[in-house]
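Hello,

Our lab assistant flagged a job as stuck in the queue for most of the afternoon. It eventually completed. Since we weren't sure the result was trustworthy after the delay, we are filing this so someone can double-check. Below is the sequence as submitted and the structure that was eventually returned. Let us know if re-running is recommended.
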Amino acid sequence: MATRLAAKQSVLASLVLPQSAKLNTVDKTALRRSKLISKLDEQKRVLEAQIKGEEYFAKKTVTKTDEDGNQITVTVPKRVRKWFYTNDGAEWLFEVKYDNKVLELAKGKTAIIAETIDDLLAVMDTVGSS
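-- returned structure --
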């Protein structure tokens, strides 16, 4: 037992072991920003579909087991929750969310008001571009 341990240590001693550094460091702020921008684009597609009178479904890939027990990859529709709603039919309100939590845009204010649904589309463009 001691001879095997000594043999392993001598093998490790003969190897060159450099300090390892993480190769791909990802900026977490940039990652969060890109996630938020992609979700804003998705909300814009939801709004455009609503203007046309259609239903929008995003697609996601899931792995399922078929009748033979094989794992297969299938693309299925995914429901997207809207970030916008009407205020008693008069105004449109748009809330920006991250991880299904409403972001506070200013102290105590979480929504952006738009007069019409077309104005709401312009608001989404403005928020997505800034």
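-- support follow-up --
The delay was a queue issue, not a problem with the job. The result is valid. The chain has a mean pLDDT of 87. The longest strand covers residues 57-65.
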